[in-house]
Design brief:
single chain, 339 residues, Spore Coat Polysaccharide Biosynthesis Protein SpsA, Chain A, five-stranded mixed beta barrel
């Protein structure tokens, strides 16, 4: 049975990230969420497709910067609303804009716009498990199965069971060291924090007022640019009392680095990923991507080689998180035209 329109979950897609760790593909004018990284469409379009079941979800709301408005409208057919941020202020204020635009009892599903999820049906199943608690005033987050000791992700520790497949969230741990991450995976009580949340609009605003009053005041008084720039994790999730987690094994990746992109991409027999004009000759474990010039990689291993019309990146795959250092160096040299 289809839920009445007023009872359907409202997807809120956050579209303000820059994706600097995927430079030179991701730029200010074409950020990560607008790119087709896997061959299936842009990350934003794939996110919208995940909430296309109108029996469960209302038309999506997208929160983004004004410079992306035209691209968003082109990529998300059937858009419910587009909320434009006056300036980037991280996720806590952005979600507040969506919550203020909804009724207090509306349930919001907050989604990053630039993540990959293989099991679309699993998203709906997880949301249905979480809905009773969200409607009862809990803030529910979704924990992705920790498949390896990843130090680039945040983790959520599960506590006591609250319902079938739903647990109290004991604590959030941001980007642990390798030994701690390994212990988390071995212990089996920690999930990756995917930044996906389900909650009533009123519940979120009440939590924001209690735990981040400066953000609440700035957003509710229409002074958005006066708001501190804080993530929802820091502003609310680490402080709120009624926080639950739904573990979900749905093939999630934030594709937050070229290493992650290599991991989820189709590979040849030597473990290479080649997109665009490229050759891998005696190469192993490489990611080669070109938007124009032919790239030939010969006898090399575990490299990321990315070529665009105005920039070339070469970095060991295992150190691809360091791409942000190149972005910082370009900024320091005043080469903003390359960003």
């Amino acid at each position: 049975m289809n839920a009445p329109p007023s009872k359907r979950v409202i997807p809120v897609i956050l579209c303000g990230g820059a994706g600097t760790r995927l430079w030179p593909l991701s730029r200010a004018a074409s950020p990560k969420q607008m790119l087709d990284l896997t061959g299936g469409g842009s990350m934003l379009a794939l996110t919208a497709e995940r909430v296309a079941d109108r029996a469960l979800f209302a038309a999506p709301v997208v929160v983004a910067g004004a410079d992306q408005a035209a691209a968003i409208e082109a990529q998300v057919p059937g858009l419910g609303a587009l909320i434009l941020e006056p300036a980037p202020r991280n996720t806590a204020p952005a979600i507040a804009l969506a919550a203020l635009a909804a009724d207090a009892d509306d349930v919001l599903l907050v989604l990053p716009s630039d993540h990959l999820i293989a099991d679309v049906e699993g998203v709906g199943d997880a949301v249905r498990r979480a809905l009773p608690l969200a409607r009862d005033g809990w803030i529910v987050t979704f924990g992705m199965k920790a498949e390896r000791a990843e130090t680039g992700y945040g983790y959520i520790e599960r506590g006591a069971a609250l319902a079938d497949g739903v647990f109290a969230a004991v604590r959030f741990v941001e980007k642990p060291d390798a030994a701690t991450a390994q212990a988390f995976v071995a212990g089996g009580r920690h999930d990756w924090n995917a930044g996906i949340f389900l909650m009533r609009a009123g519940t979120y605003l009440e939590a924001l007022e209690a735990h981040a009053p400066r953000i609440f005041e700035a957003v509710t008084k229409g002074a958005f640019t006066d708001s501190p720039a804080q993530s929802i994790d820091y502003a609310v999730m680490e402080k709120a009392e009624r926080v639950a987690v739904v573990p979900a094994a749905i093939g999630w990746s934030d594709i937050g680095s070229f290493e992650a992109l290599h991991l989820v991409s189709e590979k040849d027999g030597d473990g290479n990923v080649v997109a665009g004009p490229g050759l891998a000759i005696g190469a192993h474990g490489c990611l080669i991507r070109s938007d124009g010039p032919m790239v030939a990689a010969i006898g090399v291993e575990d490299l990321v080689i990315v070529a665009t019309k105005d920039a070339v990146l070469v970095v060991p795959r295992a150190e691809s998180q360091r791409v942000k250092e190149a972005v910082e160096a370009l900024k320091a040299r005043g080469l903003d035209a390359l960003l």
